Amino acid sequence: MKIKSPILVNIEYFFFLVAMNLARIIPLKLSYFIASICGRLFFIFDVRHRERVIQHLMHAGVAKNRREAVEIGKRNFVHFAKVIAEIFACRGLMKPENISKIVTISGSEKSKELFFSPGKSNPIILICAHFGNWEMAGQGYTISSGIPLMSVMRPFDNPKIGEYITSRRTGHTHEVCDKKGAIRPLLVALKKGYSIAILADQHASEAEGVVVDFFGHPARTHSSPALLHLRTGVPIMTMMPRRINDNFTFDFIISDPITYTPTDNKDDDVRKLTQIFTTETEKVIARYPEQWMWAHRRWLDINRERD
Fold first, then answer.
1. Residue 184, SS3?
2. What's the CA gap between 212 and 278, in Å, rounded?
3. Within-domain flag for 247
């Protein structure tokens, strides 16, 4: 990660604080309106990311042609502008007493019973993606399940902004650990009865991941969830926090519990298990493509040399 100069760090942080305080004082509906305008402007002027989104949508087969990819791409840019607006407002809007008005849970009835029954919930290895509003998913999960959570966070390019975001994520029921050397604290958290959350939808290095199929193309995916499951037996569940509308309401789309009986071939077990949870996230992204981070260089066979 390239280290920024202190001057640039402080300038970025100043504008971040300005945006944060504006988001606090203006109504959420107005924040969404401003975000929609900003998203459309970024789609016009951020040529590099716009073209990458269009290419990836067609590469994945989600868009049949460029025209369709452009339309999805516009909605995608607006979506992520709204995510930024929501990050500033999340802590003040989401509380235990109003969680039922903000979050619905759909998908596996078995997972609802096992993992979203406060007082009786079981810990899980929670797989999320940069989909919907993943930043509010941790707080939403801990309130809805009654289980404390530890999530993995990579360092921010701007450390001051990173410190602020971390402070908003954490609380008495939500802790974070650094991506580097995360396996040990995650194992400790599981032993303490915590759930753990891992964003597992971005490109992993050769040392960190295994190659699986994602929308019909090779993508190297973080293998740590599979390794943790094989070591502890704690079930894996995917949870995709889809935005429903502009009233700060979300649907947590959850999979069935994912378990795997190990064989004498550990490498093959890890790859197969990683493919299972990757396929689960792919199903949801395919249904709501405008809510996933298509600008990320996810695949090995487009916009990235093999490494």
1. helix
2. 8
3. yes
Going from the C-alpha of 37 to that of each of 74, 113, 202, 219, the distances in angstroms are: 11, 41, 27, 33
User: Torsion-angle region of residue 61: left (phi > 0), alpha (psi -120 to 50) or beta?
Assistant: left
Cα distance between residue 136 and residue 153, in whole Å:
14
Structure tokens at 19: 């945006």
57 found inside a domain? yes
Pull the structure tokens for residue 84: 């930024």
- Contact 61/55 with Cβ under 8 angstroms? no
pLDDT tens digits along 215-243: 999 999 999 999 999 999 999 999 999 99
Which residues form the domain of 50? 6-291
Q: In sequence order, what are the beta bridge partners of 10?
A: none
Name the E strands within 167-228. 174-178, 195-199, 209-214, 217-222
Q: Is residue 131 part of a domain?
A: yes
Overall domain count for the chain: 1
Instruction: Please tell me whether the overall predicted TM-score, pTM, comes out greater than 0.85 for this model.
Output: yes
Q: Helices 224-232 and 266-287 meet at what angle, rounded to 10?
A: 120
**For the segment 115-160, what is each residue's pLDDT rounded down to a tens digit?**
999 999 999 999 999 999 998 898 899 999 999 999 987 666 666 6
Task: Count other Cβ atoms within 10 Å, centred on residue 258.
Answer: 20
Query: What gap in Å lies between CA 122 and CA 235, rounded to an integer?
Result: 9
φ and ψ of 24, to 5 deg: -70, -35
